[in-house]
Amino acid sequence: MIKIHRINYDRCPLCNSNDLAAEIKANCSKHPLYSPSLSEIITWLRCKHCNHSFTDGYFDAAGFEELAKKSQGNQVFSLQQAEQWRLISGRIVTNVSNLRNSYSGRWLDIGFGNGALLLTAQEFGYKVTGIDLRYSSIEALKPYIEDIRCQDYLDVDEYEQYDVISMADVLEHVPFPKIFLDHSNKLLRPSGLIFISLPNMSSPIWEVLNKNNANPYWGEIEHFHNFSRERLVSLLRDYDFEYCHYGISERYRACMEVIARKVINK
Ligand SMILES: [Zn+2]
Predict the structure, then answer these.
(1) How many angstroms separate the CA atoms of 87 and 2, rounded?
(2) What's the CA-to-centroid distance between 54 and ligand 1, angstroms?
(3) pLDDT digits over 155-183, tens only?
(4) Could you give the strand order of the β-sheet that contains 241-248, starting from the edge strand earlier in sequence?
């Protein structure tokens, strides 16, 4: 069997510092997406300069392909998922819309997974576009959504065309998140909103999970990053986004949701 290795980060993927410390080693062999061609051990590092937490390496195309061979149940469209996640998605769309004072415009969802957020944004009145790299997700949503694409996010080139871009539990899966934020800024219209949900490493519940040896994220094979609210907000600021909402994400354990507005700095 060919063993798939990670490509090592030699610097912090957020601030480029090479002042890094080993943080924790976790076993991921019980993860539903684990396969024996991947390493059982995930090594987490901490940047001493900006305090970001990240894995010692990220997967190349072969690694992502191996992970994409299986799907987790909650990432797949089904009647049960659509009903259960419609309520959670409805609250997200409401929060975003209240900040915009509008229920219309173009909404782009990156990595739409089970499709619930896209379907719900469409239900509220948005013209939605969804991209995902899993063919099964594309096929499942096609009957319900017109503009659904199997496309790399960085290949989307409709600059300043979107009013809302959502990344629900996506950024921690991306080897270099800064590129995604930079690209999002280019695709959003002035004053457009970005919605991001992901685990919050600086939440008290994160510490409680650690103390109980029950933090699921150290062994999360698909994640390369643990963000704190503070680090995410400062990174958003670097890409000309103004932080305007914090909430507890109802999607996964210990998760936060952050909404930020594109500002034009003259
Ligand atoms: Zn750093």
Answers:
(1) 43
(2) 9
(3) 999 999 999 999 999 999 999 999 999 99
(4) 147-149, 127-131, 106-110, 162-168, 188-199, 255-262, 241-248
At residue 73, the pLDDT reads: 64
Q: Is 116 exposed, middle or buried (0-12, 13-18, 19+ CB in 10 A)?
A: buried
Rounded Cα gap, residues 101 and 118, in angstroms? 19
Whether 158 and 230 map to the same domain: the answer is yes
CA 3 to ligand 1 centroid distance, Å = 29
Q: Which two tokens stand for residue 194?
A: 């970005």
In the numeric block, the tokens 């002042």 are attached to 19
Whether residue 232 sits in one domain with residue 202:
yes
Based on the domain organization, do 131 and 213 belong to the same domain? yes
Secondary structure class of 178 (helix, strand, coil): helix
- Which two three-digit tokens encode residue 195? 């919605």
Report the relative pairing of strands 241-248 and 162-168 from DSSP bridges.
Answer: unpaired
Could you list which residues have their CB under 5 Å from ion ligand 1?
12, 14-15, 17, 47, 49-50, 52
Tens digit of each residue's pLDDT (9 = 90 or more) over 202-253: 999 999 999 999 999 999 999 999 999 999 999 999 999 999 999 999 888 8
List all residues 6 or more positions away from 245 whose beta carbon is below 8 Å from its beta carbon.
95, 99, 257, 258, 259, 260
Query: What is the count of structural domains for the chain?
Result: 2
Q: Are 185 and 239 in contact (CB under 8 A)?
A: yes
Give distance in angstroms: CA of 146 to centre of ligand 1.
40
Range of the domain at 39: 7-68
